[in-house]
Write a structure and sequence with these properties.
Blueprint: H1 6-17, H2 33-43, H3 46-52, E1 54-58, H4 67-72, E2 80-83, H5 88-101, E3 109-112, H6 125-131, H7 134-150, E4 155-156, H8 180-195, E5 208-212, H9 231-247, E6 252-255, E7 259-260, E8 263-264, H10 269-279, E9 285-288, H11 295-298, H12 305-315, E10 320-321, H13 325-335, H14 341-357, H15 378-391, E11 393-397, E12 410-413, H16 439-447, E13 452-455, H17 468-476, E14 480-486, H18 505-515, E15 521-526, E16 542-545, H19 553-561, E17 619-628, E18 634-642, E19 648-657, E20 669-678, E21 683-690, H20 692-696, E22 698-699, E23 705-706, E24 710-716, E25 719-725
Parallel strand pairs: 1-2, 1-10, 2-3, 3-4, 5-6, 6-9, 12-13, 12-14, 14-15, 15-16
Antiparallel strand pairs: 7-8, 11-16, 17-18, 18-21, 19-20, 19-24, 22-23, 24-25
The protein binds 1-deoxynojirimycin.
Length: 728
């Protein structure tokens, strides 16, 4: 029977257009992701598959009239774009091209380096680690994710969790310091902050653990250089943060630039496939670092770009960032039998799975809402300020020069005092100068313009001393000098290695000159790496390591200088006393002769060790004890009393040592930390529940866990207690 009834026609049109009836499982949101992926792959040509494996750059064009021009150069089938713009309209226009102009309508995955904030830029990761507050760092990542996804970003290339022990390497700024456990804990916080509970939820972005792996061991701190990492060090030091991040559900991993013992990370099948994908069951995808596939040629592991593409894909790199070696060569590599279709399908499947999990097929476009409603909200600024306050580390405070007394007149001097941009750090995201509270603004607002006498004193570098005289005169009129020195933001980060970690000569000279005025000097440092302060420290009554604090830096510093908050940051990376000590870190393995082997010309100890940081109050540790529990675990406890007159937060770091084991262990290893506010005169009992399997076992050079009976030492703030693990 034939019918022309309009209602029946409409119903049948709906039924026939339904993806299920059309057999388009991949368009059916209710189908399992695996089914959607395999259905889609079964429909794709080899060329379409290869496009999914490619990522290119796109953006930086704020002119709406140029959109058409811009889009022309990007194929509708591309898998991913690094979107460097924050213009939602442009992003959506590109997405529309992918969805409407490509045969299968596969949406593009838009990625961006949202490293320590998108528009609300907060402290660099190294500073965040010094806060010892991973919950707050997670909250900041959540803010970044919400701002970024509101601007059309689906995926961030963060967190960077490369354990790094050489401050000459500029990228120490981007990670969480020298300790594997610290990096692991902050990795988990960042992943959860970015990804939320469900990647399809609004305000989330996919995370990317980078740079897998060992990049932090770049020889001599020279960026992109090779690394020699023993198997034991790889498992002990570099892998734990990645293993933790994978377990936390990170959606992607980035392969690193460095060669490892002769096999670059981007060509390293053992590390990418055998360990990451198979042993750890990582089910997301691996993206190369920028041009890292092509760079296999420079690294001497591939004769040309085609070979590089084949080697990288075989190793386990699913997506080629930037070099277009996959784009250019993968089709012919498959046609000539060098690369199998199965290998291509496996990589495409991983990439498509993330697109489905993000809900991109259902919601490819970003809703355009006014910027004022999605970035720099008051609550975002508060998070950024709290994180900056908690990240700053008080390194010295003679005669309680800090906090500043009420009514103090401050000579605020130094090239960083009125600078905005350098407070942002090496990955400023879309942070803008006008968003940033400088030190001079923050302090003037807190204590009043008339109490802040500003004089720049000198530039960041060079030899010009003409501004010294004015700075000295300004110091003469004040009660105290607050001297703001440090590194320009481009002096740390990628491709920003330095052989000297001292302040530039002109800045040191200014400090020495100000010292001659006899005024107490509070040195405030803004930098992206531990600095060598051995010559400078004697000139200062107080030193505050402010790091690169982000847009709320000036307010946070003012609160700290004035005592509105007590400093609670502690170092996540050792400050050497001399560059010749590098690498120097707290968790080295014990020396053969513990009373010998010291430097003859300088003390062997660093200037400021790992976990060091002062407060405006004092804490006393007592009653350290440990008890075995019925379930075989141990409960260690310590009482911490705030013996001063100010409320303040204290972080307790719990270390474990294993004095005799079949593989020598680091002299101390951080296994747990906790930060709590303790009101003046009060005490708090901190607890560390030691799970022997988690906290006392260690891995051998194949990554296999070993669990040995015997004595272990639990230490906290220089006190220790022994536990004994009986033979099972
Ligand atoms: C190179 C950097 O090493 C990496 O960290 C970053 O995510 C990519 N470029 C993309 O910008």
């Amino acid at each position: 029977m034939k019918t022309n009834h309009p209602i029946i026609l409409a119903i049948s049109a709906c039924l026939f257009a339904s993806p299920v009836l059309l057999g388009q499982t991949y368009r059916d949101a209710s189908a399992p992701v695996e089914d959607r992926v395999s259905d889609l792959i079964s429909r794709m040509t080899l060329e379409e598959k290869v496009w999914q494996l490619n990522q290119a750059g796109f953006g930086n064009n704020r002119n709406i009239n140029n959109i058409g021009e811009k889009l022309k150069h990007i194929p509708a089938e591309i898998g991913s774009l690094i979107y460097t713009d924050d213009d939602v309209t442009l992003r959506n226009a590109m997405q529309r091209k992918a969805v409407e102009d490509s045969r299968l309508g596969i949406p593009i995955l838009f990625g961006y380096d949202v490293i320590h904030g998108f528009r609300t830029v907060y402290p660099i990761s190294l500073a965040q680690a010094c806060s010892w507050n991973p919950d707050l760092a997670r909250e900041a990542s959540r803010v970044a994710a919400r701002e970024a996804s509101g601007a059309g970003i689906d995926w961030t290339f963060s967190p960077m969790i490369d354990v790094a022990r050489d401050p000459r390497w500029g990228r120490v700024a981007e990670g969480y310091g020298e300790d594997p456990y610290t990096n692991a804990i902050f990795a988990v916080g960042a992943v959860k902050g970015y990804q939320g509970d469900n990647l399809a939820d609004e305000g989330t972005v996919a995370a990317c653990l980078k740079h897998y792996i060992g990049y932090g061991a770049s020889e001599g701190g020279r960026d992109y250089s090779c690394t020699d990492i023993s198997d034991q060090a790889m498992w002990d030091t570099y892998m734990p943060p990645y293993q933790a991040g994978v377990k936390a559900g990170a959606a992607t991993v980035m392969s690193s630039f460095n060669d490892i013992n002769g096999i670059p990370a981007t060509a390293n099948r053992f590390l990418l496939t055998d360990v990451l994908k198979q042993r750890w069951n990582f089910d997301g995808f691996v993206v190369s670092d920028w041009n890292a596939v092509e760079q296999l040629v420079s690294q001497g592991i591939a004769a040309d770009r085609a070979a590089a593409a084949a080697v990288a894909l075989y190793a386990g790199v699913d997506m080629d960032m930037g070099s277009n070696a996959y784009g250019e060569h993968m089709v012919s590599l498959v046609e000539s039998g060098i690369v199998s279709m199965d290998a291509i399908d496996a990589s495409v499947a991983r990439i498509l799975a993330l697109k489905f999990r993000l809900g991109l097929f259902e919601h490819p476009y970003t809703t355009e809402i006014p910027e004022s409603q999605r970035v720099l909200l008051d609550s975002d600024r508060t998070t950024a300020r709290r994180l900056a306050e908690e990240s700053m580390v008080l390194l010295k405070n003679t005669d309680d020069v800090l906090p500043l007394r009420a009514g103090t007149t401050v000579a605020l001097i130094g090239p960083m005092a009125d600078n905005r941009g350098h407070l942002l750090g090496s990955w400023p995201g879309h942070g803008r100068d006008e968003d940033i509270v400088s030190v001079v603004d923050g302090l003037s607002q807190r204590i009043g313009n008339s109490k802040v006498l500003f004089s720049r004193g000198c530039d960041f570098e060079g030899t010009d001393t003409t501004l010294f005289a004015e700075a000295l005169a300004t110091a003469g009129k004040a009660d105290v000098v607050v001297l703001c020195l440090g590194e320009k933001r481009e002096w740390s980060g990628e491709n920003a290695s330095r052989a000297s970690m001292e302040l530039p000569g002109i800045q040191k000279k200014l400090l020495a000159a100000l010292n001659r005025t006899g005024k107490p000097i509070v040195l405030v440092l803004t930098n992206g790496r531990p600095l060598i302060l051995t010559d400078d420290e004697p000139y200062c009554s107080a030193i505050v390591e402010m790091w690169q604090p982000g847009i709320e830096g000036g307010n946070a510093l003012a609160a700290l200088l004035c005592g509105d908050v007590a400093p609670s940051g502690k170092l996540a990376m050792t400050f050497p006393r001399h560059v010749g000590q590098v690498p120097i870190y707290y968790n080295e393995r014990p020396r053969a002769r513990r009373d010998q082997g010291f430097y003859q010309d300088i003390p062997t100890e660093p200037l400021y060790p790992f976990a060091y940081g002062l407060s405006y109050t004092s804490f006393e540790y007592s009653d350290l004890g440990v008890e075995k529990q019925a379930d075989g675990t141990f409960r260690a406890t310590v009482r911490v009393t705030n013996t001063g007159s100010r409320d303040a937060a204290e972080t307790v770091h719990w270390f474990i040592s294993d004095p005799a084991s079949s593989i020598s262990r680091p002299a101390r290893e951080l296994k747990y930390f906790e930060k709590r506010m303790i009101p003046a005169g009060n005490s708090a009992v901190f607890v560390f529940d030691i799970d022997p399997v988690r906290d006392l076992a260690f891995v051998n050079s194949h990554g296999m866990p070993l669990f040995e009976a015997g004595a272990y030492i639990v230490s906290v703030n220089g006190q220790s207690v022994e536990i004994n693990l009986a033979k099972q």
